[in-house]
Amino acid sequence: MDQSRRPLKKICIIGGGSAGWIAAALMSEHFKGKLAEIELVESDDIGIVGVGESTIPPFLQMLTRLGINEQDFLKEVQGSFKLGILFKDWKLKGDDYIHPFGRFGVPVEMDDLYQVWLRARAQGYDGPLQAFAAASVMIEQDRFTLPFKAPRTPVASAAYAVHIDARRMARYLRRFSEARGVTRTEGIVDQVVTRPDGFVEGVVLKDGRRIDADFFIDCTGFRALLIGKTMGVGYHDWSSWLPCNRAVALQVTNPTPPGPYTLAHAQDHGWCWRIPLQQRSGVGYVFCDRHVSDDEALANLLAQAEGEPIVDPWIIPFKTGMRERLWEKNVLSLGLAGGFIEPLESTALHLIYRGMDFFLRFLPDADCDPALIAEYNRRMTQDYEEIRDFVIMHYATTQRDDNDFWRQCRTMEMPESLKSKIELFQVNGTVREGVDLMFRSVSWQSVLEGMGVHPRAYHPLIDRIPFEGMPAYLDQAATAIRRAVEGLPRHADFLKDHCTAPSPDWAAPV
């Protein structure tokens, strides 16, 4: 055994917000006060982006890992439930589809129900694919229950995530972390001190205080103070595939009860989101400033926001892409400091959690062995590129040609990695799977079918199943899902009965 090993004694997180406090919470829980000391430096004078309010199902694994009660958490963060994403006008104006969480129905003799549906469709069956996704039917009917509370029913095939108030979540995780020994220091970093070997040795705050540590986590947002400005790690620019480079964001009251889904509504020069929380919604317009101005984008957003603004809108400029290396020497970048993929598939918070999950797997000593760094960067790059391709797919497969923005999207040269996945799917619906992929078959099948990309045939093995009775079986399965969902409570009623949040500050009487 190597007796010269130098364990980490102190880890310093620079920056708070979602990234900083997720990192602090996970380390404080896993270290149990017996490993490295954790200090987080942030300033109330530096704003956070705070629009990462829609999640995907693995986010709930993080809560479980932290031992956080989901019901209590949702009360604290004004949360609601999410069964998937409703896409409007992406294929063509007036054409909508759902990307659901969970799976389609049940396997038929060990076969994917999607393949059974493909064969039936080839024989004239006209039942919609999403009729076999319990999450989609729940969205359409505005119903909800926790799928694991309905075992042995069709509803159990659904999965869910949550909508949250990002700032409230950061405050919640701050309390969680400080209760487990994390030290929070108020201050703004003025100078970064490095060693001759390029490692960061410490940071100097504007008031002159110096904080030294063995390892640093850069959560400074787009500024990328450590990984970019200090370490000089470059940036892979993906704007040739993802042309949107700005967003205007706003919070509005809820004129109607919140639905159990995120809305992604394609516009003339980008797309608008709506993320419904219990007592307000986050809305925004992601756009390309070569086609529309900030003022025009804001006017467009306000015209369809539904609800009264409760804060002033803010503009977020961005460049889609990621750092050439997310971990360099003794600096790890998380969140916006490491990269940004527009929020179309709600993956920002997941990438923060994923980044910390892999960091804990490859936890180094004070010397930061290059083999650990290389493997971390390889795995995280794979995740970023998978999400990149999945998001590009929504743009590249559009059939819209009503303006220059969408014509540019539909004629783009796709990354080879995405192009090969779509070509494989078009053969017979085969989806390239991996050991640890984020988007499973149901996601690719739902989005590609929704965008009008269809396989030329079904998988040959399906021919071993007699076709006689197959349409009737599919109809029965769809009917069983629909009836099971009809008996569920409304989403708003479920929230009221199980995790009603206290009234927010802005809703208090004057």
UniProtKB/TrEMBL annotation:
Bilayer-spanning residue ranges: none
InterPro entries linked to this entry: FAD/NAD-bd_sf, Flavin-dep_Halogenase_NPB, Flavin_halogenase, Trp_halogen
Lineage: Bacteria, Pseudomonadati, Pseudomonadota, Alphaproteobacteria, Caulobacterales
Name recorded for this polypeptide: Tryptophan 7-halogenase
Protein's organism: Brevundimonas albigilva
Gene3D superfamilies, sorted: FAD/NAD(P)-binding domain
Coiled coil (UniProt feature): none
Pfam families on file: Trp_halogenase (PF04820)
